[in-house]
Prior knowledge:
Largest sheet: none
Keywords: Membrane, Transmembrane, Transmembrane helix
Strand content: under 5%
Number of helices: 12
Distance between the termini: 117 Å
Oligomer: single chain
Subcellular location: Membrane
Order of helices and strands: HHHHHHHHHHHH
Membrane topology: Multi-pass membrane protein
Structural class: mainly alpha
Protein name: Transmembrane protein 120B
Helix content: over 70%
Shape: flat
Radius of gyration: 33 Å
Pfam families: TMEM120A-B
Amino acid sequence: MLDFDLQLLTRRSLWVCCVCPAFHWFYDMEGLDPVLRQFYEQWKTLQTKYKSYMESVEKTKDEQSACLQSVKHCRSYMHFISKEIQKLHKSADADLSKTLVSLQMDLENKESLLQDVEEVLPRQPGMYLRVVLGALNISFANKQDKFAYKNDYEQFKIVVSAISAVMAFLLSFVFKNRIMDAVFHFLLVWYYCTLTIRERILIANGSRIKGWWNIYHFIATACAGIMLIWPCSQSYDEFRDQFMLYSLYLNGVHFIQYQYQVGCLYKLRALGDRHPMDITVDGFMSWMFRRLTFTLPFLFVAYGFELYNAWRLYNISTEPYCHEWQVLAVSIIYFVLAMGNIITVCLVIRQKIFARTRVVVRNRLRRKYSTAYYSGSECSSSGREPNSEKSPCAEPSGDTANSNRNAVVDDQTNISVSRSS
């Protein structure tokens, strides 16, 4: 009886170990079949979409090349027409002069539209970016990507300025170590180098960084690099505490300034008074008069600090114990930075105070809500005929266009007068 029970138990064990997994696999495959079918259907959809995407990319590249050629041709025509208008102005009567003025205004509007077109087309990087990044297309295809990159640039400046201010405070009052100083100088070199690269990319995508602010961060990079390789010596020790206090003050001012500039630029862009790709700067510009005039005293104190740095370093360089070339080099750089900042800010203030009332043609709002690029399909889809009078796609007649231009000029004259007053 015991042998029979053992045999029965052995058979049941073999059935459980061998037969049950087969049934289990069979039932699992029945549940897996629908998932596999959905997966293969999704895989076919992916292949179709990928093929369509690659065709769209190739088509987009061809269209971009065609647009670039058209832009070059239009600029050639506009340049030729402008020269002819200047020649005709010399011997034109009253009626012809009126026509030429109207044509010149139309060319200026076309020039603004061409700039908008160029902002979304691929651009060749400048020499600096070609050296750093190579022959890379650094233009963003849509405005959302441009704004996202610009906002990331602003946040980068705010965060690094805050970190630099904290490090300068610690190095001024807590740590007195040359290795920590080198880390701080390296942070400044990396920060200014990164700013120069990002600013070149922003310029290629429509940001307007001009004049002194176009080279300011390059000079600051050179200054930080020389400070980094300045050997530990008596001359460095004499200037160290002053430099840390200067860095603490300057980064604190920049942090506050960036915070206020971001909000101010947002409001001005919403009003159409600033370009959407305008960015914050380390100094003072004309658009800051409305809300950021309170930062002027702090900036002038910083510029005075830079002049004091230059004077102190020059005195150190004349001492007999000073044998480092970095002392005089940094002194010259601080003097150049201070004079460039002071002259630029004074010119901005003078231009704002003594500028004559003039007509400023503002195309930003018109471009923001422009209907100049409506196609026939868009008009037909919206239920409007492309050539109807009320259609935004219709070209205005000569009288209507002239009256609209006169109305715009009158309105802008009133606006500029009220703002200047």
